[in-house]
Structures are given as C-alpha cells and as structure tokens.
Amino acid sequence: MKRWIGLAVLSVLFFPAAARCAEATPSQRQAARELLLLAGTAQAMNAAAEAMVDVQAKANPAMEPYRDVMLTWMRKYVTYEALEPKLIDLYTESFTEAELREMIAFYKTPVGHKALEKLPELMQEGALMGTELAQQHTDELRTMLQARQDELEKQEKQEKKEGGKPPGLR
C-alpha cells in the first residue's frame, strides 16, 4: 500500500514537469514569437512599466523625484528582449502550434485588431473597479486582521503559559 502511495506522489510530482519539458518545435516557437509581436507585447510592457512607476510615485509622493531613475532601470532590465525567450516558453507550454496559428489568424481580423486595442484598456478598467470595490471594504479587512492578530497573541500567551508546566498538566 505504501509503495502505491509513493508511486502516486512521485507521478504527481514528476510527470507534469516531464510533460512540460517537451521541446517546442522551431515552428511552434516562431508562432509564439509572431503572436507576441502581433499582440504588441513589447509596447504593452513599456506602458505597463511606466504605469507601475506612476502608481508607485502616486502612492508615495516622496518617490516622484526618482521617477526617471526607476523608469531608466525598468527600461534597462525589465524589457521585452530579456523576457521574450521565457514568454515564448510560456506560450509554447500553454498552446499547441495550431492554437497559436489560430490566435494569430484571429488577431489579424478586424475584430481581432479591436480586441488587441481594447483588451488592455478593459483590463485596466476592470482592475480599477476591483481596487475601488476592495477599498470600500478596507475597514472590515482591518477589523478582521486585528481580530486575527488578537487571536494569535492570545494563542502565543497561552502557549508560553503552558510551556512552563509539566506535559501531564497541560
């Protein structure tokens, strides 16, 4: 019985990794690269980097004088060129070549162009909606966090108190 359980654990741990390690064909990698370029991934990354720096500067006004330094750093290290091989790996692990080619064909249509144009804006607006919704309930979150902190402190005090007693008296 233990042997079967061990084999089951090993298969869960190692077979998914082995399945993902299958090498993508050069044409599948090229399809992923084409899709990433068609989708404007490089431009989206640049815009996202700038937006991220702006959010940080807005959240912490003391960072505003360093905005240009942060952008320079982001543009130097967090680039499409640096991430492209990993993004291609991600896409080739997630989609077959046929699926990649279908997405490319779709994004070349008028509706596909519109989707590429609108999706980033829709994602951003959706994220803002989620942020606003979360902000409406921050007081409840603070209360819940304080209750957990009180509970943990009480538990810690109890454990310290019991720590001095012999095991049979706990």
Q: How do the helices and strands line up, and which of them pair or pack?
A:
Layout: H1 2-20, H2 26-38, H3 41-59, H4 67-77, H5 80-94, H6 97-107, H7 110-136, H8 138-163
Helix pairs in contact: 2-5, 2-6, 3-4
3D architecture notes:
The chain is mostly helical and 170 residues long. Mean pLDDT is 83; it is low at 1-20. The chain has 2 domains: 23-108; 110-160, no CATH class. The chain has helices at residues 2-20, 26-38, 41-59, 67-77, 80-94, 97-107, 110-136, 138-163. It contains 8 helices and no strands. Helices cover 83% and strands 0% of the residues.
Shape: elongated
How many helix segments? 8
Helix content: over 70%
Structural class: mainly alpha
In whole angstroms, the N-to-C terminal distance is: 37 Å
H-E string? HHHHHHHH
Computed Rg: 25 Å
Q: Segments where pLDDT lies below 50 for 5+ residues?
A: 1-20
For the record, the count of structural domains works out to 2
- Report the major sheet: none
Average pLDDT rating: 83
Q: What is the number of beta strands? A: 0
What portion of residues belong to β-strands?
under 5%
